[in-house]
Write a structure and sequence with these properties.
Oligomer: heterodimer
CATH architecture of the largest domain in chain A: 3-Layer(aba) Sandwich
Shape of chain A: globular
Number of helices of chain A: 28
Structural class of chain B: alpha+beta
Radius of gyration of chain A: 28 Å
Strand content of chain A: 5-15%
CATH topology of the largest domain in chain B: Glutaredoxin
CATH class of the largest domain in chain A: Alpha Beta
Chain lengths: 669, 163
């Protein structure tokens, strides 16, 4: 392709691309993000190609492999355009019906439509599905519509027009001013004002200056940045070029997790295309401005998400953070002024420039503008990627968009902010949790408590309530999650990821883990709680970087809201959620129907009873592997306090009746 | 891939593609790891000589980042996702059953060099949790009971990780 040397040429190209778009053609926008690839969208794509070929529909029906549509729970999924019909859980066998009925005859294949569990009706269009209805998709606007490997597609959808506007009609200072007025804040979790950061970096004396994109998305359960890089890499590149121009930088880097091969691939393709078109290089759009971007793959260290550690890693060194009193905007990469923003922040930049600061600032709350992308995972009906306006309540996200907790189980908590800094957001009006907060001295009996779930998503409101926005991972937990185990899990995660440079983090985390592990094994002592709190406070006060400084959050927030669970483990040697193996025993109740599925999966042969008979677990053989519990569809297997398991089993023996007798008895009644 | 190129020459090629820049150490190690599935000591020695870096510096980086292995990996790579979303869906029980059935501990390779069992922090396929990757292919919505079949897949799969 010939390089574009002026904004006019870019416009002409866009007009040509749009004119070539035949409205009578059909586009099958099949999601090929990592989530859908994992649930086998490739055979579906192959089936489409084959069928399109067999029917001679090439050139009229186009298969477009797009980035993530967000509704991962229902994958593989596709939108048929121009009708906008949303099909989900598509198998290769369904392709024939889609082409024969929908594409050839305009008829909807009802069985592939999303069925709303509340109204029990089938819904045809994505925008009418509750999951999408309350979302405001700005950063994700083109995800699912464009082919991420085609720069033409991005341009046809209006891409790079913000860059053209910035380079030709705005001075660097004006751009910074616009970003400041939009009140865009860093989406990586810190919420630092982006415009102010850019300004400091621009005003820093030394040269050269660097711009960096942090795509080292290490929080488990968070995949916002990956999806943007996979589905719309040019939006990040465009944001970075605008930022570099405003700051006065000519060299940029994207630091991306090596665990994200598809994101690396799409980003690399996009950079090559942008270079070929002259959107990166010595003379961007004929403006005389020079800028290029390099890609650096991370080595799989969580701490490298921290800005100073990331920069050390970019220099080819061990990713150890350094003290923060030297600001990276003045002394960052190779000791030069460096401006680092995360993927989502960069992707917001073209939006602000194109539509203006006033438009952007009209979305959201007083202190937090625009939208935020969240990855909704764990015990939630609609796992996926959602983009919501700031100010929406967590309840709306979890209930209206997420569809609540599956299987009639009780919601317990949602964890935000990742393992480091992660806090729990709970239903603070729950009687048990209120008692726990009373014990912790946080509230007095009779105090009016507002539910944390009704808090608006807003950097300041969440911080004020002792929680945090985080980078966007939201992991939902239900009654089956043990909060002591969750705290232990996070601390264990951080021990492995701590760089070991400073003592409080290196040793403090080990001590915390030791104590938590003891508690989960039923060997805890009442004074452990105080020790946990003391070590936590030391870590917060004395750690070198935020990894250690916020590491105790999971411990402290579980202690605040779920003190009763700690007490149960320590005092009664009981795990209320039935998770902590050393405390739990498995038993089969009189609800057993005798299908013996449990006996089949038991690895130690502990379950016996024979077909259509009550199954019985031999406690001396049981290794508490949970296999039987997971396989029983009649909820006949219970996880109880270890020493009670034998009693439950005995009761079942006395009261169990064959299913036939039970149904007869029911019929008589 | 150029499996036929002898080791020192292949490592030299990789180093040359980054103009022996010391800042490219992580990338060089990544490519060596991709080529041999681990970081052979001879390769590290070569990098030290060619890039003029102390062995201690190279080992420092190689042992800091999770992506690198100083031991040869097995023919099959089994990665159990232990991210938070998978953890709350009981990935722990899957991992333990895999250890039991494959006779290999997490983070290690079986004595017959058939399988390496490792844990990963998150593969971002949370809707499928708990998830296990076998040679890069996802197996989702797992239960402990399904591990038996998974082990069969591993044992019978002729494919292996690309070295």
């Amino acid at each position: 392709m010939r390089p574009i040397v002026s904004p006019k040429e870019l416009n002409d190209l866009r007009d040509r691309l749009r004119a070539a778009h035949d409205p009578n053609h059909t586009w099958v926008q099949l999601c090929a993000g990592t989530g859908c690839l994992a649930c086998n969208c490739e055979p579906v794509a192959a089936a489409f190609r084959q069928k399109i070929h067999d029917e001679g529909l090439e050139g009229v029906v186009h298969l477009k492999l797009t980035g993530c549509h967000g509704f991962c729970e229902r994958g593989p999924l596709a939108v048929i355009q121009p009708q906008g019909i949303f099909y989900q859980r598509i198998s290769p066998d369904d392709v024939e019906a889609i082409i024969d009925q929908t594409i050839k005859h305009g008829k909807v294949v009802t069985k592939l439509l999303y069925r709303d569990p509340a109204s029990k009706t089938r819904i045809e269009k994505a925008e009418d599905i509750p999951f999408y209805k309350k979302q405001v998709r700005l950063v994700l606007r083109s995800n699912g519509h464009i082919d991420p490997t085609s720069i033409e597609d991005y341009i046809a959808f209006g891409g790079y027009s913000a860059l053209a506007k910035a380079l030709t009609t705005m001075e660097p200072e004006r751009i910074i001013d616009e970003i400041k007025r939009s009140r865009l804040r860093g989406r990586g979790g810190g919420g630092f004002p982006t415009g102010a950061k850019w300004e400091t970096c621009r005003n820093a004396k030394e040269e050269p200056k660097y711009v960096i994109c942090n795509a080292d998305e290490g929080d488990p359960g968070a995949f916002m940045d990956r999806s943007v890089l996979e589905g719309n890499p040019h939006s990040v590149i465009e944001g970075m070029i605008i930022g570099a121009y405003a700051i006065g930088s000519h060299e940029g880097y994207v630091y991306v997790r090596h665990e994200y091969p598809l994101a690396v691939k799409h980003l690399t393709i996009a950079l090559d295309q942008a270079r070929e078109l002259g959107l990166l290089g010595p003379n961007i759009l004929g403006s005389g401005f020079a800028f290029d971007i390099g890609v650096s793959r991370g080595g799989g260290a969580f701490v490298c998400g921290e800005s100073t550690a990331l920069m050390a890693s970019l220099e080819g060194k061990v990713g150890e953070p350094r003290a923060k009193y030297v600001h990276t905007v003045e002394h960052g990469l190779w000791d030069k002024p460096s401006n680092l923003n995360n993927v989502e922040t960069w992707a917001n930049v073209p939006l602000v420039i194109e539509h203006g600061a006033d438009w952007f600032a009209s979305i959201g709350t007083e202190g937090s503008k625009g939208t935020k992308v969240f990855a909704l995972t764990g015990k939630i009906c609609n796992t996926g990627l959602v983009e919501v306006p700031m100010g929406i309540t967590l309840r709306e996200i979890l209930h209206d968009i997420g569809g609540g907790v599956p299987g009639k189980k009780k919601f317990k908590a949602v964890q935000t902010g990742g393992p480091s800094g992660g806090t729990l957001i709970v239903e603070t009006r729950d009687a048990k949790i209120m008692r726990s907060m009373e014990d912790a001295g946080e509230i007095s009996p009779g105090d009016a408590v507002t539910s944390l779930l009704d808090l608006p998503v807003d950097f300041d409101e969440l911080t004020q309530a002792g929680s945090m926005m985080g980078s966007g991972g939201m992991i939902v937990m239900d009654q089956d999650s043990c909060m002591v185990d969750v705290a232990r899990y996070f601390i264990h995660f951080l021990i492995e990821e701590s760089c070991g440079k400073c003592l409080p983090c290196r040793e403090g985390l080990r001590k915390l883990h030791e104590i938590l592990e003891r508690i989960t094994k039923g060997q805890g002592a009442p004074e452990d709680i105080l020790t946990l709190q003391e070590i936590s406070e030391t870590l917060i006060d004395t750690s070198l970087c935020q990894l250690g400084g916020s590491a105790p959050n999971p411990v402290l927030s579980t202690l605040r809201y779920f003190r009763d669970e700690y007490d149960a483990h320590i005092r009664d040697k009981r795990c209320p959620a039935g998770v902590c193996r050393e405390l739990v025993g498995y038993a089969i109740t009189e609800d057993c129907v005798g299908d013996a599925k449990c006996a089949k999966v038991c690895p130690t042969g502990a379950i016996t009873g024979g077909p259509r008979n009550l199954q019985v677990i031999d406690q001396s053989k049981c290794i508490q592997c949970d296999a039987c519990y997971q396989v029983c569809t009649f909820n006949a297997i219970v996880r109880v306090k270890r020493d009670r398991a034998a009693d439950v089993q005995t009761t079942a023996r006395q009261t169990w009746k064959p299913v036939k007798e039970r149904t007869q008895a029911e019929a008589r009644a | 891939m150029s499996q036929n190129t002898p080791m020192p020459e292949r490592v030299d090629e990789i180093i040359a593609s980054y103009q022996a820049r010391t800042t490219a150490l992580i990338m060089v190690l990544q490519e060596v790891q991709q080529e041999y599935s681990y970081l052979p000591p001879e390769a590290l020695q070569r990098i030290s000589e060619r890039m003029d870096l102390a062995m201690s510096q190279i080992y420092g980086v190689a042992t800091f980042y999770k992506a690198f292995s100083l031991e040869p990996r097995g023919k099959h790579l089994v990665s159990v996702c232990t991210g938070t979303a998978c953890h709350v869906r009981n990935s722990q029980s899957i991992l333990e059953r895999l250890e039991r059935d494959l006779h290999v501990e997490r983070g290690h390779t079986s004595t017959d060099r058939e399988v390496t069992l490792e844990t990963v922090n998150c593969v971002g396929a949370c809707a499928l949790g708990p998830v296990v990757l076998i040679d890069g292919k996802h197996y989702g919505h797992l239960t402990v009971g399904a591990v038996e079949k998974l082990v069969e897949v591993i044992r019978q799969c002729p494919c292996s990780v690309e070295h």
